[in-house]
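Running this now, will post back.
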Amino acid sequence: MSEKEKEWIREIDELSVSLGKSDQVDPGRLAERVKTAKSLAAALLSEVKHISENSIANRSASQGTPSNQPKIPQRLQRAKIADAMNLVERESAVIDAITSRLERLDASVFET
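Update: finished.
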């Protein structure tokens, strides 16, 4: 096991002992960890709120001015979709061929 895993196991053992027996509780260490966890949670929540507000503002700004988005010709979009479909069909054919070969190999293994 790695050192981090060993340390994690030791920490879990300490917590299980300290939570199970009131005379061995180290309130300072637990309180410090709870305080750290709460501050991290508060920081993450404020960051999420800030990011979501910026995202909403950016989305509304981009919807207001459609010229910000590049125009892709319909013909080019159709050509790209056709290329993608051809690739999918080729990959599907390769997968089918591999599957049938594996089935034949499997059948030949059971016959012998």
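The longest helix spans residues 27-64. More later if anyone needs it.
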